[in-house]
Design a protein that fits this description.
Largest sheet: 5 strands, antiparallel
CATH class: Alpha Beta
Shape: globular
Structural class: alpha+beta
Number of strands: 5
Helix content: 10-25%
Number of domains: 1
Strand order of the largest sheet: 1-2-3-5-4
Mean pLDDT: 96
Bound molecules: adenosine monophosphate, zinc ion
Low-confidence stretches: none
């Protein structure tokens, strides 16, 4: 049995506040939001991080990228939004199932 919490959410074994699902992805609210809107875009397939991507995932990645502005629009983020992918412990990754953070709803500080 998988110990991955995002695989458990994908399988419906753990609850989540799901706001979008399709054949490739599931999107739910982050349990500890860092902004008024904080979603996680998660592939159904278990891929630990960006490091494990192969050319086989190209369609999936394109799909996730193109989904982001549609989700942002549906959340009313007309003024813009931020996307973040943490990779590896040094990059702040805590859940080792690839995901894109989608943040917005307040003026986010600059990255500098
Ligand atoms: P990262 O540090 O990029 O791996 O981000 C993991 C994110 O997953 C964090 O922002 C957590 O708040 C979030 N998270 C952890 N467990 C859950 C859960 N059960 N449901 C929703 N979000 C979660
Ligand atoms: Zn997983």
């Amino acid at each position: 049995m998988t110990e991955c919490i995002f695989c458990k959410i994908v399988a419906g074994e753990l609850p989540a506040d799901v706001i979008h699902q399709d054949e490739k992805t599931i999107v739910f609210k982050d349990i500890h939001p860092k902004a008024p809107v904080h979603l996680l875009v998660v592939p159904r397939e278990h891929i630990p991080s960006l490091r494990e991507l192969t050319p086989q995932h190209d369609d999936l990645i394109a799909h996730m990228m193109r989904l982001l502005p549609r989700l942002a629009e549906a959340q009313g983020l007309d003024d813009g939004f931020r996307t973040v992918i943490n990779t590896g412990r040094g990059g702040g990754q805590e859940v080792f199932h690839l995901h894109i953070h989608l943040l917005g709803g307040s003026r986010l500080p600059g990255m500098a």
